[in-house]
Amino acid sequence: MSDPRAALARALNPRTVAVVGDKRASGYMWLRNLSTFTGKVYSVQVDPRDIEGIQALGVPNYLSLTEIPDEVDYVVCAVPRQATPRVMQDAAAKGVGGVGMFTSGFAETGEELGRQLQDTVATIARQAGIALIGPNCMGVYNPRLGLRFSAEQPAGVGGPIGVISQSGTHAINISLVAAAHGLYLSKAISIGNAAVLDVPDYLEYLDRDPDTRVIAMYVEGVRDGRRFRDVLRDVARRKPVVLWKGGQTAAGTRATLSHTASLTSSHVVWQALARQANCISVDSLDELIDVLQLLLRAKPGGGRRGALLAQTGGQSVVLTDAFAKAGMEVPELTAESYARLAEFFNVIGGSYRNPLDMAGTVNQRPEHLDRIFAIVDADPHIDAIVMELSALFMARRWLQHPEQFTDLVHRLERHRERSAKPFLTILHPGHLEAEVASLRPQIQEHGIPVLPSFERAARALARVTAYERARAELATPASA
């Protein structure tokens, strides 16, 4: 009996893919998704009503996996559940590396037939050493190879984020929302019921994957909690792991049983597990993306003391409240810093305490922003710098005078490059969502984190700061 984990690399990095059961009724969804795949694509379909359309797409069709003339690394299985054992038997005979089983109707239904069919396909996979992904899942996304499970996912461009998700929808959404923020995935694996390979197996793979620097997970439950804990703790020592736990409430826990047949425990247990493993726990897709931005774009730092650069007095107050509530500190600067700021700060309608209300000073003389950055960056009371970008007052002006916005972005970029401290910006859309949507990518493409609200920025920075502090403590010898 071969180990299915050994075949996982073939499934995640295939040269040849076969789609079994794609149909006209679904618009040949899977074959169209694979139109960007850089390797070879084959179809297996026995219904003559569907074969004609498959051939019209230019995809060779066969009546069985065993008839395909090439070695097959990865199979997308989209047949009715009663036919899945036959597909798995053919996959075993063909020596397939992995099968992504889109088919549902297995253990998640609670039906005896569904459980029996899942046991059957899982047994075949284990005996043949096939990496069975799912069932009840979307399978594998490898953007560099153009291997997709949604036609909207980017192809041909890869990034450093590896994703494990028990939900196919969340796997798609993570890839799309991340891309909208200029963050791209190395791989995403939608694992569904995880009948053969479970979360720890995929964690171990992504830990070894040279293309993956950060791991993000949406998890509803695992089969072996002890092994998951041990693997998570081990992997998190080397790569940041962001955990989004689904089923945090009693009602949500019940929902996981009918979604992926996952066995889960209380959210308190999962939070404790995350702390012990030093992975970053988040509660939503938005928080996941925010944390990924900071992990990949901000310099590492474990200090809680922030310098807050605001554009108006009212904003400076609520900005301070948001960061204080999140557990961050907003300390006074040193006397030397105040003396340096007093040399040029326009105090009419502004303040250079911390937070700094600096719109009047910077709008009159944009170069003063460089001086402010230099002063707060050198201040020993400050560990991180957060700047509000006043879209409410400035977005339309920036669009009318793009050279002013370009100048601002270059100043932000120069500060980020010079400083060793975490730096992030906040661009609150307010009523100018369309305008801000066009400006945000221009900042992010320069490697600067952009968060959409004070509260989200504060929570993300607090989470990443706690992670960095714990990581530093773990790296320090006990005798130090």
Plain-language structure description:
The protein is an alpha/beta fold. 45% of the residues lie in helices and 15% in strands. The chain has 19 helices and 17 strands. The chain has helices at 8-12, 29-33, 48-56, 84-94, 112-128, 168-180, 199-208, 225-236, 250-260, 267-277, 285-297, 313-325, 335-342, 359-364, 368-378, 391-400, 402-418, 433-444, 454-475, and strands at residues 16-20, 40-44, 61-62, 74-77, 98-101, 131-133, 139-141, 161-165, 185-190, 214-219, 241-245, 280-282, 306-310, 356-357, 384-389, 423-427, 450-451. Helix 2 (29-33) links the parallel strand 1 and strand 2 (40-44). Helix 4 (84-94) runs parallel beside helix 5, helix 11 crosses helix 19 and helix 12 packs across helix 19 (454-475). The longest helix has 22 residues, at 454-475. Residues 255-259 have low confidence and may be disordered.
Poorly predicted ranges (pLDDT <50, ≥5 residues)? 255-259
Category by helix and strand content: alpha/beta
User: Can you give the helix content as a percent range?
Assistant: 40-55%
How many β-strand runs?
17
Biggest sheet details: 6 strands, parallel
In what range is the share of β-strand residues? 5-15%
Label the overall shape: elongated
Radius of gyration: 26 Å
Lateral strand order in the biggest sheet: 3-2-1-4-5-6
Q: Measure the end-to-end span.
A: 48 Å
Number of contiguous helices: 19
- What's the assembly state of these chains? single chain
